[in-house]
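ugh ok fine here u go
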Amino acid sequence: MPDKFKAGARQRLPDRRRSETRKITWQPPYNVDAPTTKIYVTIGYAEDALRPVEIFYDSGYRSGSDLETLVSDLCILLSVLLQHEDIEIESFARSLSKEVDIRTGKMEFASLVGVLIEELRRPPEWAGALQASGGEKE
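structure:
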């Protein structure tokens, strides 16, 4: 059976790399009664310290719960995808479902997958300083 999905080679990540832990607060945009979810993820960056190459779930859901396992697995899948040549996070962001948030009226990602991808698209806190210094690592 021929492969329908082919990606470029998977890059090997250095043993040590810069990372940033973030708190994500999310509530489904279409459900006013849904509880607010707070989770923590860590994003690892390539040698340029600006391009995300991995995302890990840290905490937020009850330990051992189905949601904890699901978000952890989503992060692993996103990490593997990020580490292959010719795969860009922007193409995923354009393809995912969005809904109008009934609280704000703004268009938002409809699922936690989109929220994780949005975090990958957001630059790290040191990006401005790094770019101002000419792109050299701090």
